[in-house]
Amino acid sequence: MKSKTDKLKLAIELVPSTSWYDNLRKYISKKDWDKIRKRTYVEYGHRCGICGAEGRLNCHEIWEYDDKKHIQKLIGFIALCDMCHHVKHIGLAGILSSEGKLDYEKVVEHFMEVNNCDKRIFEKHRERAFDEWRERSQHEWHVDLGEYKDMIKSASKKG
Ligand SMILES: [Zn+2]
After folding, report:
1. Where does the chain have alpha helices with state H?
2. pTM for the structure as a whole
3. Rounded mean pLDDT of the chain?
4. 111: CA distance to ligand 1 center in Å?
5. How far is the CA of 79 from the centre of ligand 1 (A)?
6. If you measure from the C-alpha of residue 139 to the centroid of ligand 1, how many angstroms do you get, rounded to a whole number?
């Protein structure tokens, strides 16, 4: 049976530490990245794809994890407001907050507001997300850029 946290509109997504630096931006030019970003913002009507907020947006990579084969696949992008983006990367939000650059409680409040839940649900969800992250971080992941593969300049360099 699925628990309540599986249905959250705004969920935490932690990228395994073993593939932290393997994101798409490392492989493509700034020009191509800007193209993807702008296309994503247009696609989402220049609003946050989760809470609908306007203003500054972030282009967030959506990954799918195969926990058996350890393949991390890029399946698309979503436009996110700063707050939703901080929730996605709650580990980083914690670091920013410890450096006095972000109010962590505001991020938690945003989570509770968007998901219409209390702090208990947040804590439970965060624990689960970190458990999953710890497990995934024990493995080396094969990063599959899916349909975005063609954008990589060095794609012709095979074996
Ligand atoms: Zn948002």
Report:
1. 24-27, 30-43, 82-88, 90-98, 104-115, 119-136
2. 0.87
3. 89
4. 9
5. 8
6. 31
